[in-house]
Specification:
Number of domains: 2
Largest sheet: 14 strands, mixed
Oligomer: single chain
Number of helices: 9
Radius of gyration: 20 Å
Structural class: alpha/beta
CATH topology of the largest domain: Aminopeptidase
Distance between the termini: 46 Å
Helix content: 10-25%
Order of helices and strands: EEHEEHEHHEEHEHEHEEEEEEHEEEHE
Shape: globular
Strand content: 25-35%
CATH class of the largest domain: Alpha Beta
CATH architecture of the largest domain: 3-Layer(aba) Sandwich
CATH superfamily of the largest domain: Zn peptidases
Number of strands: 19
């Protein structure tokens, strides 16, 4: 075992890892930990889990595979990264004194800190190991189908994404993501596996990771067909900092629509109701911001206030709408998309 100021590196599986819960993982790994395991093919598959401490599907999937290959060789070398173990202890996305662990990787807009330095070191280390592909396993905080996210639309990336599910999203967001950081070195994908811990999400992640372990190579030409639903992310939607919002408090400046996440991945018509504005606290600006990758706010094109109701101004598709108010503040409300 080696330890640097940022992370722990291991070359063997601690026995306790096979069954430890996410909330107790910090006792085994008090810091983010990188575990390298040999396999029949030497170029490793990189898999990161728990970059968000409350998204546990990746840990369960990795534990399933660790048990399967405990006494037989892995089809391919694998490098497993266990991310925000301290946030996992608390069941949170990240702690208040931490950056988001999926915003710290090369390409981040954050200044240099301990987390950005070890994230950069991991990407360099995996490039030196000639990483085969990268998988980052996540969950949603609202109802969504399973889907993959890419930051490149080249053939290997598209082929990797559609191996997980026919629903594939191209997105330049968020800046500093693990998937974006690994994309120059290898095909790289984010898996979105529904709510944390759901059995079908764990099973889907296990099957996909094992498929990748057994691939001899990644086709360079994209297999784009009617079997792929490919979308582009237009903008990241956030609630203005000065707007007090809620799903449950009637006196909030913005009372969001009950079960807003039922609108995820639905082609929505103009006039779709999204929330109610409190007439006692009139807003001079739209309560939402929708920033493109270039930093342009296009909220006024897509959202409108009429009779104290926040509605869609034009047809749109939204995704990743969150029902967790803390996560909405830490990250975003959701994303605007268009079909490619």
């Amino acid at each position: 075992m080696s330890i640097d100021p940022g992370i722990i590196r291991l070359g063997q599986i601690p026995e306790a890892l096979l069954d430890v819960s996410a909330t107790e993982l910090h006792r085994l790994f008090p810091q983010p930990t990188l575990l390298h395991l040999d396999g029949q093919r030497s170029d490793p598959l990189f898999v990161s889990v728990l970059l968000h401490g409350n998204e546990t599907t990746g840990l369960f999937a990795v534990q399933t595979l660790l048990k399967k290959y405990l006494y037989k060789p892995w089809p391919r070398a694998v490098s497993l990264f266990f991310g925000n173990v301290q946030a996992a202890k608390a069941g949170l996305r990240h702690l208040d004194n931490q950056p988001d662990f999926n915003r710290i990787w090369p390409g981040t807009e954050l200044g240099s800190c301990t987390e950005t330095r070890w994230a950069h070191a991991i990407v360099d280390e995996m490039a030196d190991r000639r990483v085969f592909a990268s998988i980052d396993v996540h969950n949603n905080s609202g109802r969504n189908p399973h889907y993959s996210c890419l930051e490149r639309l080249d053939g290997p990336s598209l082929n990797l994404g559609v191996l997980f599910d026919r629903l594939v999203i191209y997105s330049p967001y968020p800046k500093g993501s693990q998937t974006g950081a690994f994309a120059p070195a290898c095909p790289s994908v984010t898996l979105e596996c529904g709510y944390p811990g759901e059995t079908d999400g764990v099973k889907h992640a296990v099957e996909f990771i094992e498929t990748c372990l057994r691939l001899s190579g990644m086709p360079s030409h994209p297999r784009i067909s009617q079997a792929m639903d490919l979308f582009n992310t237009l903008a990241q939607v956030t609630v203005r900092d000065e707007v007090n919002f809620s799903y449950s408090e009637p006196q909030a400046d913005l009372l969001l629509r009950e079960s807003l996440d039922e609108l995820n991945f639905v082609e929505l018509p103009p006039g779709t109701f999204l929330g109610k504005l409190n007439p006692i606290n009139p807003q001079t600006l739209l309560p939402l911001i929708a920033l493109t990758d270039g930093g342009k706010d296009i909220a006024a094109e897509y959202f409108h206030v009429a009779n104290n109701q926040l509605i869609l101004a034009k047809s749109a598709m939204l995704c990743m709408l969150s029902m967790d108010e803390r996560i909405i503040r830490q990250d975003c409300l959701g994303y605007l998309m268009e079909r490619i």
